[in-house]
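Entry 14. Structure prediction run on the chain below.
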Amino acid sequence: MASPSKAQIKANRQNAKRSTGPTSTTGKLKVSQNAITHGIFAASPLLAHENAKEFEALCLSVADVYPPADAIAASLVERIILAIWRQKRLRIAEAAKLAMSTSPEMMIREINDLLDLSLSQRLDANSISEAQEQTFIYCKELLAEFKGLDIQALPANLARVLDKIPKIYGRLKKDLQDYDTTVDVLMASPEKIIESVEKTKKYTSKYLLDNEINHRAYNIAQQMKLAKLIPEGKSVDFLSKYQVQLDTDLYRAIEAFKKHMIWRAENLEIEVREA
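Output returned:
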C-alpha cells in the first residue's frame, strides 16, 4: 500500500475536523429536531398546550452543550432533550395538581364535611376568601375598640379619645357621608353620635357572630394548604419513581453521549494516522 501524500494526510485531518457536527446554532438545532421528529419519536413530543418555542430553545441549549455530530450522537441528544422536557412537564403537573387540590372549590368540600355542617349551613368558596377574612379581622379590631368605651359619654369626650378609637371614628365619619351631615351638626347633636356608634357596635357584633364559622373555615383552609404540600397516597410513590426514572434516563444519556464522542474522536484519530 502506497504511503499517503502530505496533501492526502492534510485533507483527511481537515475532514476529521469538519465531521464534528454542525457548528452554528441553527445547524445544531436542525440536527436536534431531526433526531426528535424521526424514528420512534416521529410524533411530536409536545402536548397540545405546550410551548413549541420553549421546546426549540431547549433543543438549542442542549445542542450547544452536546453537539449532535452523527446519527448516534443525535439519538442520545434526543434522549437528553426529552428527559429534561419531561422533568419540566412533571414539575408543572405536580404544581397544577397541588393548585387544584388547594383551590377554594376543592377545599370547601372537605371543610364542609370536616365541620359536619348541615345542608343549610354549608359554605361556599367565598366563605374562605381573603376578602372575607380581612373583613372579619377588621370587625374584630373594631369591636375591640368598644372595650371600656362609655358610649353615652362619648360625645363630650370625642376629641380626647379619637386616637384610641380610629376605626369607630371612621365608621362615624362614614355615617356623616351617608346622612349628608356636617361635622358641626354632628358635634352639636350628641344623640346622633350615640346612635351612630351604637349602630356600629350592634352591626359589628352581629357580623362576627354570623361569620365565625367562615373565620374557622378560612384558618382550616390555610392549614390544609400546608398539609397538601405533601401529597397523599400512591401518587407520591408514582411521582417519586417517575422523577427517579427521568433522572436516570438523563444521566445515562449524558454518559452515553460522552463515551460515544470519546470513541468517535479516537476512531477519527486512528483513521487519520492510518491514512
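The CA atoms of residues 224 and 271 lie 66 Å apart.
Filed with the rest of this week's runs.
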